[in-house]
Amino acid sequence: MLQTSLWILSISIVTAASSRGEDNTLYNCTCHGEHCSGNTCIGKRCFVTEQLLENDQVFRVRGCFTTNLPEQCNSKTKVSEARCCSSHFCNANMTIFPPKEKPEVTSLVLVTVLPIVLFLIIAVLFIFLFWKLRGKSRKKSLARLIDFGNIDIVNASTVGDSTLGDLLDDYCTTGSGSGLPFLVQRTVARQVTLVECVGKGRYGEVWRGTWQGENVAVKIFSSRDEQSWFRETEIYNTVLLRHENILGFIASDMTSRNSSTQLWLITHYHDSGSLYDYLQRNTLNPEDCLQLAVSIICGLVHLHVEIFGTQGKPAIAHRDLKSRNILVKANKECCIADLGLAVIHSQTGDYLDIGNNPRVGTKRYMAPEVLDETVRTDSFESYKQTDVWAYGLVVWEICRRTIINGMVEDYKPPFYDVVPHDPSFEDMKKVVCIDQQRPNIPNTWCLDKVLSALTKIMRECWYQSPSARLTALRIKKTLNNLKNSLEQRKQEC
């Protein structure tokens, strides 16, 4: 548990730091910890976090983060502390806690018994105060207690009487637009009960869980995919990320189960599952087909756009968009999930953060420039263009399951007829780059106004030249115009 606390402290530093950027000087830093892919990393600040364990040993993590945030560099409690520095390998030999000598009996009593007594007194006073204020509205109670500097503690204590809707309304409609505070996230995570496994993949497992009688989805990452969990946690805590067509994030935590550490990501739960599963079980009419396509592009536009201001949002590219990473909601709209490979860009200083994850995207959905390795990895526009390519393939999957003149086709993945079930990189490169093949579009699609319009968009998403493809915003405007014209015609009839 103490090691877990230190990891959360480290994550908090890195996550909070990602919201600003002041000095563009980069330093080589020593990297030591499970999050490291090597012995060094490059960032704007080097850091060391240390925590005293029960046996007086020191648990230490070294690393770097990409922005300057001095107020986070002196995080300190009785048993943990973090410090930062700004020069090459300045954190290599930096230590915080000196080795402890064996205390005398009197000192041991003072150190152990006195804090417990003080804690019990404070706990009794706090419970009395809490019950006294409970009759008043929660907002007024919180406003009064903020003055004591205990807002996180109070919020965590009220989790027991809250619903997910209450918590998300409180924290995500006040201008932050991101996840819950870390202390509240951990409180929620420890109260979740796993019910059934609903999916497995290379990243780990997805479970349906319950919290306060409400369903939640728990994505449990395998230990070898720690970087994806770390990255997705970082992205989901981005300011102003929350959107109806982005999977709703609730909490992220490291937890110990069955004598092993598990990495949890807790999100909203959707009964219909992924778009991949939904299309295999259901057929669509043209209106449903359009609604699915519009909702996906709305989520993608929100990711791609940068919002400027004090509470701004960086631009984000998904990099692994596919039907398995899109969920279908009860209202037959979609929300985009799995941000473990996402890339962040800010025009301030032309900052591009591609993360530290060795995992690559899904080969079947890779754009030509990724397959032939000509993609400009230093250009954020290049990543957005690969998302648009993948979006065209997802729309093709949706259109295949749409009924036209009483006819509908079986679900098939893109390029099902020209590559194996699990295609290799070379298989996809030959089909997409060398032969320049595209998914087959039946002639019957031109008989329907919706599918005809979607066919045109697909083809403009699949240009070999990335710069010739449509932007996500242009697609959104086109589909919204089509949706509005259909609704207007229906009203006239």
Report low-confidence residues grouped into runs of 5 or more. Answer: 14-21, 135-161, 171-176
Could you say which overall geometry the principal axes of the C-alpha atoms support?
Answer: globular
Helix content percent band: 25-40%
The CATH topology of the largest domain is given as: Transferase(Phosphotransferase), domain 1
Major β-sheet strand ordering: 6-7-8-10-9
Radius of gyration: 25 Å
The H-and-E topology, N to C, reads as HEEEEEHHHHHEEEHEEHHEEEEEHHHHH
Corresponding CATH superfamily of the largest domain:
Transferase(Phosphotransferase) domain 1
Largest β sheet strand count, sense and barrel closure: 5 strands, antiparallel
Overall CATH class of the largest domain: Mainly Alpha
Share in β-strands: 15-25%
Number of domains: 3
Global mean pLDDT = 82
Describe the structure.
The protein folds into 3 domains: 84 residues, CD59 (Ribbon); 133 residues, Phosphorylase Kinase, domain 1 (2-Layer Sandwich), CATH 3.30.200; 218 residues, Transferase(Phosphotransferase) domain 1 (Transferase(Phosphotransferase), domain 1, Orthogonal Bundle), CATH 1.10.510.10. The strands form 5 sheets. A 5-stranded antiparallel sheet has the order 6-7-8-10-9. A 3-stranded antiparallel sheet has the order 4-3-5, with helices on one face. About 8% of the residues have low confidence. With 493 residues, the chain is an alpha+beta fold. Helix 9 runs antiparallel to helix 14. The chain is globular.
